[in-house]
Specification:
Blueprint: E1 2-9, H1 13-22, E2 26-27, E3 34-38, E4 41-52, E5 58-68, H2 71-85
Antiparallel strand pairs: 1-5, 2-3, 3-4, 4-5
């Protein structure tokens, strides 16, 4: 098994959980670390904190661990997950 930890900022934790479900994962736990298991992979929402860039501008930072059976499956999982977290300005 291989894993990688990533940080996502400015996205609601509930949405991040929903993305694991949309990728076929089943939620295993209901508190930190939130665990999702899919076919050959696992996702864990490890923690959430608030980051302040100024005294007014603050965003959330959510830490997620992705685990898969091999590097190729891990890259595929992260690519599909990042696609769901893409935000386009306009």
């Amino acid at each position: 098994m291989v894993n990688r930890d990533l940080e996502f900022r400015g996205i609601n934790r509930a949405h991040l959980a929903m993305y694991f479900k949309e990728l076929g994962g089943k939620q295993v736990t209901d508190s930190f670390p939130y665990l999702f298991e899919g076919n050959g992979w696992r996702g864990e929402i490890l923690s959430e904190e608030e980051r302040a860039f100024t005294s007014v501008f603050k965003v959330n930072a959510v830490y997620i661990r992705f685990t898969a059976e091999n590097e190729e499956e891990l890259e595929k999982l992260i690519k599909n997950y990042r696609y769901k977290t893409t935000r386009v300005g306009g």
